[in-house]
Amino acid sequence: xxxxxxxxxxxxxxxxxxxxxxxxxxxxxxxxxxxxxxxxxxxxxxxxxxxxxxxxxxxxxxxxxxxxxxxxxxxxxxxxxxxxxxxxxxxxxxxxxxxxxxxxxxxxxxxxxxxxxxxxxxxxxxxxxxxxxxxxxxxxxxxxxxxxxxxxxxxxxxxxxxxxxxxxxxxxxxxxxxxxxxxxxxxxxxxxxxxxxxxxxxxxxxxxxxxxxxxxxxxxxxxxxxxxxxxxxxxxxxxxxxxxxxxxxxxxxxxxxxxxxxxxxxxxxxxxxxxxxxxxxxxxxxxxxxxxxxxxxxxxxxxxxxxxxxxxxxxxxxxxxxxxxxxx
Length: 328
Ligand code: HSE
Fold this sequence. Notes:
- This protein is of the alpha+beta class.
- The chain has helices at 79-90, 117-132, 139-154, 162-167, 202-207, 215-234, 237-243, 250-253, 260-269, 291-307, and strands at residues 8-17, 26-43, 60-65, 99-106, 170-175, 180-184, 190-196, 274-277, 284-288, 312-318, 325-327.
- The chain folds into 2 domains: 8-185 and 321-327, Ribosomal Protein S5, domain 2, CATH 3.30.230.10; 190-318, GHMP kinase, C-terminal domain (Alpha-Beta Plaits, 2-Layer Sandwich).
- 35% of the residues lie in helices and 24% in strands.
- It binds L-homoserine.
């Protein structure tokens, strides 16, 4: 266990959920952007910052926002707080009537951007807490705890951002209850992301989806998921590209994102293997085999959104293989 009052620094990567065809089951972590956090264990009795839950029968968590997003600091309303409450409830090695956590969060991943901002906070908090406590929990336990943060953010527990954020790389969530996460290998891939500066709430982007799927669409979709997994495992770039197709979610959600169809055409024409909506949007991502292509894709994204007069940020990055890391 790390001594009381000793701060640790945490880096939690952004993630791209769904990976086009794998709604709620596939995702990968990226090296940029990422959130920064600091955490320490404190004695609840000498907590100077004062926002312990008041009742010593409850877990004590103090959230301190370093950024300007004004996210809730009440632990049960904060995604990192909700994830920590789940961890503390299952932890039998520490007496949380006397000990608590202080968490400083500097969100460099803009909330509502579609690249796993809430997952980074939840995953960063539970990985940090586990480290402070001497690592009593497995990665699967941490994914389970962090899903409570996703429930606060979007109303549903899903792990397609959390799993890659904690494991790194590309992950497949075969099942949530019981949790089964499979880490997938991938060949070198360059990732170009554009974040048009509009907000799409995950809860809204989920509420517009149809609850029933036509069998012919389901057949296409599971062919693509299987093709994508096989392509990643074989390092077959062409198969990866062909499999990055979504006939169920994208046709509905893309109407929320200005210029989506034109952008997709332009990025493919620039040589990208394929891509689509990142998570529930509004960010859009494309994968490329070469860095040069990823940079050309970025130019297309900039050209399109400059043409539409819509403020945007772009990132050219690679797949993050480590997941959340602690600076020692
Ligand atoms: N799989 C989720 C969705 C990711 O697309 O709604 C959003 O966090």
